[in-house]
Amino acid sequence: MIFFIGVLSITLLTGASGQISLGQGALMAVGGYASALPILHFTLNMWLAIPMAVFVSAIAGLLLGVTAARLSGPYLAGTTLVIALAIPSLANRFESVFSGDVGLSVDFGNAPSWLNKAIGEVALEKWQLIVTIIFATIALFFALNILDTRTGRSWRALRDHDIAASLQGVNVGRSRIFIFMVTSAFAGMAGALYGLRGIVSPSVYAVSLSLSLLTAAILGGIRNISGAFIGSVIVVFLPDWIGTVTSRFSVPTRISDYLPALITGLLLVVTVVLSPGGVSGAIHHKKHK
Amino acid sequence: MTLEISHLTTQFGSVTAVDDISFTAKASEITTVIGANGAGKSTLLRTISGLEKPTSGSIKWSGNELIGLKPEAIVRLGVAHVPEGHAVISELTVAENIAMGGLFRRRKNRADLDSASKEVYELFPRLEERHKQLAGTLSGGERQMLAIARALVARPQLLLLDEPSLGLAPLVVEQIIATVNDLCRKTGLSVLLVEQNAITALGVADQGVLLSLGKVVADRPAKELRADATLRAAYLGY
Amino acid sequence: MNLFLSAFFSGTARGAIYAIVALGLVLVWRGAGIINFAQMGQAMFTTYIASTLIISGKSYWLAFVIALIAGAMLGALIDILVMRPLSRVHRAEALNSPAMKAAIPVIASLGILGLLQALAGMFWAGQERGFPAPVAIEGLIVAGRKMPFTAFDIFTIAIVALVLVLTSLFFRKTGTGLAMRASALNQEVAKLSGIRTTQVRVLSWMISGATSSLAGLLITPTSNLSPTTLDLVLIIGFTAAVVGGLDSLPGAVIGGFIVGYVISFVNFYGTPEDIFLAILLLLLIVLLVRPSGVMGTKQVRRV
């Protein structure tokens, strides 16, 4: 679920507006730390901390956008990758604040008592799920809103014909920055929610996270939200599915450890070559044949 | 060694640039394809040289079917295309551009390539003067000469020339066209010359093919086209 | 003073390696229009192959040569199996925006990286290994004084210098080199000149593959070998290429050395964690101030 929100940020950024970022994981980190710190130090309520984190991430996105909006293609990809590496390392650099590699362990609080009374004791995981779904719905609402309105159309114009778009009065630079802000907000929300699981540390938000997000977005279909959902499902549950299969066949750990990564990488390459639109793209293709 | 084009059609999406064109360019002659802007002349040449894929039809050169071949293969059959506009590589020197034209023959016949290079420099002495300069620093006329030189160094049997006069001063154009004409008469090189400047083109050509909106409107000896005032007025504006 | 000298020499050696990495990236960029994010994954893979050979008793130099050949072949494989079908699909697919077209090969190369890392993990059980060097990597003593550089540093610099000279000669003086340059600069004119641009492209991938193998062989002795060791190097190589100018081969070399020195001095005078930040800053500064890089042509990537 949380992953889905993160993937949405990529779908919007890359699919809708054509800018490629390998650093969404880092933005999630921003969100994560931005919500964890207030909760730890100021015992801020989760419901306040998370939106605040979203806001902070948006600001981060603004900064990112200002530097990156002028870049495209490989320059953008490379720069965001560097950012993806640099930000988690900040946590190590300023250990006093961020507790370095160990990370911050945060308690987001349990289900409120009125809920417990109403429907019986809510386990921590269920509570986490509920919270996540609430935020996911909000995110989804916004995402749908964006994609289907004029804003979405101008983003798509930016992706496909940026020169034409600028001639039509779309301020390319500013729009790009705005897009970064919005997608960072999504990423930040996801990152903050990751904190629900209890720990905020650099390893949670490593580069592999950014890559997984991207993989999910592509596999599912970069152009639309259902694609983001499909992709998230695949990426999140694939290791488990593979695990069940390998345990049945007693595959040596050497292989089974790396099998998910292998299959993910393979899927990514195959998808990109055979059906760049991902799963949803393929379905769309079939429908309209 | 004739070029036979039958029922050639090239489309870009919904735009039909070349519409069911058929004509023959005879060996060792200058056949000029004229017509207004957008008539499909450049697309025709690009289809012949393999840069564009036609939707239907056939192009036979010396008995070989050219459709479906890659541009590199078509070059090896003796067809050289000098495209309009960016026909030289600005970041390479004059000498490198010319050498580039002969690369694919180097291994087979180094000696002939060397003499071909010498001949090309004799044809365009200005290029010899500037042979160490970057192509991007040449004047428009010199760049056109270089483009033609690049094509000639491979000793083609068919030269596809796309609007050599574009952007050049009349004197320079005359020079270039005269050189090409000379080459054809002396060495038997077949030339397919695409031009907007019909007067100049018809002045040297043997055969004229008039295109309008992708279709062949007239396919006659150049002399006749020159004399036909109504045709000229209707399609060429003079 | 000693610290400075150490930083300087270390920077030179590292810079040489980064120059090679950047060179490989620029080669594929110019030859195929792609930033190959999998490049260091290829290096990791071939270095593992070399390592396996050495462990089973073969000589260092044999392993060295085989690694280079393996690198070239891996590069060719990537072009033939992935990149070429990719460009064919492009023309047919509806995903036709220029931005997506540029993004897709990048994503593909990331996929390949993941694939290579997973395969390496499977074949070699993801163990971290050391990697031997043909000459000592510890201090060098000349005329009784301890030098601020090692024999391996000299070895590295010498090999890189040799490779640079050879590639320079190759591109400037040979027909194939000219064909590669021409194809990279203007593919259409190259095709019309009879140059087999597909062959040229595979060649770019092969040379790039071999050079990245070389980089892997030169880096691992002073660190270690695991499926993810070389990830950082890719970033550094990319930064070096951008600093020098993505379009320029000499630029890649210069960029490599610049980055090498920056990192070395940050390492010696600061802390290792600062390196990421330093690279990021360097990248941002270059992109903001002079996006075409030190040696690049003024044609900026985005107006």
Descriptive report:
- The complex is a heterotrimer of chains A (289), B (238) and C (303).
- Chain A has 289 residues and is an all-alpha fold.
- Chain A has one domain.
- In chain A, 78% of the residues lie in helices and 1% in strands.
- Chain A has 14 helices and two strands, in the order αααααβαααααβαααα.
- Chain A has a two-stranded antiparallel ribbon with strand order 1-2.
- With 238 residues, chain B is of the alpha/beta class.
- In chain B, β9 and β10 (215-221) form a beta hairpin.
- The longest helix of chain B has 18 residues, at 170-187.
- In chain C, α1 crosses α9, α3 packs across α8 and α10 runs antiparallel to α11.
- Chain C is globular and about 60 Å long.
- Chains A and C meet through α4, α11 and α13 of A and α3, α4, α9 and α11 of C.
- Strand portion of chain B: 25-35%
- Biggest beta sheet summary of chain C: 2 strands, antiparallel
Low-confidence sequence ranges of chain B: none
SSE pattern of chain B:
EEEHEEHEHHHHEHEHEEHH
- Biggest sheet character of chain B: 6 strands, mixed
Number of domains of chain C: 1
Q: What percent of the residues of chain B sit in helical stretches (DSSP H or I)?
A: 40-55%
C-alpha Rg of chain B (nearest Å): 17 Å
Report the CATH architecture of the domain at 1-78 and 158-164 and 190-238 in chain B: 3-Layer(aba) Sandwich
Mean pLDDT score of chain C:
79
CATH secondary-structure class of the domain at 1-78 and 158-164 and 190-238 in chain B: Alpha Beta
Shape of chain B: globular
Instruction: Give the neighbour order of strands across the main sheet of chain C.
Output: 1-2
Query: Helical region count of chain C?
Result: 11
* End-to-end distance of chain B: 34 Å
Q: What distinguishing features does this structure have?
A:
heterotrimer; B: 238 residues; alpha/beta; Rossmann fold; six-stranded mixed β-sheet; four-stranded antiparallel β-sheet; 41% helix; C: 303 residues; mainly alpha; two-stranded antiparallel sheet; 11 helices; 2 strands; disordered C terminus
Quick recap of the structure?
The complex is a heterotrimer of chains A (about 290), B (about 240) and C (about 300). Chain A is an all-alpha fold and about 290 residues long. Chain A has 14 helices and 2 strands.
Topology:
The complex is a heterotrimer of chains A (289), B (238) and C (303).
Chain A: H1 2-16, H2 24-42, H3 46-68, H4 73-93, H5 95-98, E1 104-105, H6 113-119, H7 124-148, H8 150-160, H9 162-167, H10 172-194, E2 199-200, H11 207-220, H12 225-249, H13 253-274, H14 278-287
Antiparallel strand pairs in A: 1-2
Helix pairs in contact in A: 1-7, 1-10, 1-11, 1-12, 2-3, 2-4, 2-10, 3-10, 7-8, 11-12, 11-14, 12-13, 12-14
Chain B: E1 3-12, E2 15-25, E3 30-34, H1 41-48, E4 56-61, E5 64-65, H2 71-76, E6 79-82, H3 94-106, H4 110-123, H5 125-129, H6 140-152, E7 158-162, H7 170-187, E8 190-195, H8 198-204, E9 207-212, E10 215-221, H9 222-227, H10 229-236
Parallel strand pairs in B: 3-8, 3-9, 6-7, 7-8
Antiparallel strand pairs in B: 1-2, 1-4, 4-5, 9-10
Chain C: H1 2-32, H2 39-55, H3 60-92, H4 98-124, E1 139-142, E2 145-150, H5 151-173, H6 175-185, H7 187-192, H8 197-219, H9 231-244, H10 249-269, H11 274-289
Antiparallel strand pairs in C: 1-2
